[in-house]
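Work Package 4 report. The design task specified in the project plan requires that, given a folded chain encoded as structure tokens, an amino acid be chosen for each position. We show below one input record used in the internal validation round.
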């Protein structure tokens, strides 16, 4: 009931939704099943928009989530077994992610995939394979994010991928998923890196940018693009995007 109480406070405070997340178990799954009845109740009684981090979900979790009416599952798609083992410290395989995507798709759950560029200590290792996996599935949206070398972590001194490198992957994603909303997510380095990447990503074909720089807004305006602002997680913006 604690989850329901928290969601009630969100609703009473004027919030429109929440992201349900948590630490994962040793198999890479987030232990959601005890909370699924409450998640369904929140959707039915409070009408909040609900996004869920599942990690690599079990079959039973996917089946149960299909009956909750959630607005989407957020899932990192990783294209390298080495990255899953050495960065996520999990004894899982790329094929496990691929299979989970198939089940989520079969159960009609909206999936918002995230590709973390430079996840393997700043180098590109499985991103191309991740794109290949994405190309096989019907997803609600694809979000590109970039490694952030956060202080106090093992990667605090790692250099993130160059904005041009990231932009090339965004352009590849645009070609692979022509009819899928493509977004540049909030997790990306700041400063000049963000300014340059924002500008390049617009030209590479993104449909939206989380927390866009001023320069990005100016470029979008000069290109004659239709600019809309939404006060929601970018993983929900696909609902407002029409790709013709």
């Amino acid at each position: 009931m604690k989850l329901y109480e928290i969601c009630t406070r969100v609703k009473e405070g004027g919030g429109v939704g929440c992201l349900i997340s948590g630490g994962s178990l040793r198999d890479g799954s987030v232990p959601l099943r005890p909370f699924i009845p409450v998640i369904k109740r929140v959707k039915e009684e409070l009408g909040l928009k609900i996004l869920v981090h599942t990690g690599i979900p079990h079959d039973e979790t996917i089946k149960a989530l299909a009956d909750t009416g959630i607005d989407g599952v957020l899932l990192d798609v990783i294209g390298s077994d080495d990255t899953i083992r050495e960065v996520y410290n999990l004894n899982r395989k790329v094929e496990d992610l691929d299979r989970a995507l198939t089940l989520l798709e079969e159960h009609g759950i909206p999936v918002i995939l995230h590709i973390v560029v430079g996840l393997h200590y700043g180098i590109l290792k499985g991103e191309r394979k991740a794109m290949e996996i994405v190309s096989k599935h019907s997803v609600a949206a694809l979000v590109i994010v970039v490694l952030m070398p956060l202080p106090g972590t093992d990667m605090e001194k790692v250099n993130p991928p160059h904005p041009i490198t990231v932009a090339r992957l965004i352009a590849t994603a645009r070609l692979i998923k022509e009819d899928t909303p493509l977004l540049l997510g909030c997790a990306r380095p700041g400063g000049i890196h963000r300014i340059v990447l924002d500008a390049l990503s617009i030209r590479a074909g993104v449909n939206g940018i989380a927390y866009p720089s001023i320069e990005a807004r100016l470029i979008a305006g000069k290109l004659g693009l239709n600019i809309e602002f939404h006060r929601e997680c970018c993983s929900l913006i696909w609902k407002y995007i029409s790709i013709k």
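The chain is about 40% helix and 15% strand. Validation will be extended to a larger panel in the next phase.
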